[in-house]
Amino acid sequence: IFFRRTVLSGHMYFLLCGASILHHTGGLHKLWDVLNCIHNAHMFYIKVRDIEERTALIVYLKEHGVQAVFHYIPLHSAPAGIQYGRFHGEDRFTTQESNRLLRLPMYYGITNKEIETVTTCIKSFFQQEKQQEI
């Protein structure tokens, strides 16, 4: 299972690496690059510019049959965090970065064809966005 997920994650990363359009968002990450360790490839995420871009990309992917999700809600803004915790200092990064995260489909049974669909849609979205900026 570990080997297959690692191969699939590597395939997705390889297909997105050529998408220089993603790099303007600072967005192509493999979790193990961040952690500088071996990762079990249980998820694959990108970072987009902001919550508006993430929302637009989720809608675009859904229109093309791809489910992408966000799941990281900072603890200080979660219901239990609000009720039982408190935030110390200024929130300069946590909320902003959580709003940029988007998890892409990554699971043991995903096929190369499905990965290619996901990556093609992502590249298409950013290409359209770039053309709209011009």
Q: Terminal Cα separation, in Å?
A: 44 Å
Tell me which oligomeric state these chains represent.
single chain
Level of helix content? 40-55%
What composes the largest sheet?
3 strands, antiparallel
In round numbers, the mean pLDDT is: 84
List segments where confidence is low: pLDDT < 50 over at least 5 consecutive residues: none
What structural class do helix, strand and pairing data support?
mainly alpha
**What is Rg?**
16 Å
Give the strand line-up of the largest sheet: 1-2-3
| Portion in strands | 5-15%
The succession of helices and strands, N to C, reads: HHEHEHHHEH
Give a count of the beta strands, DSSP E runs of length 2 or more: 3
**Total count of helical runs of at least 4 residues:** 7
Question: Which word captures the global form?
Answer: globular
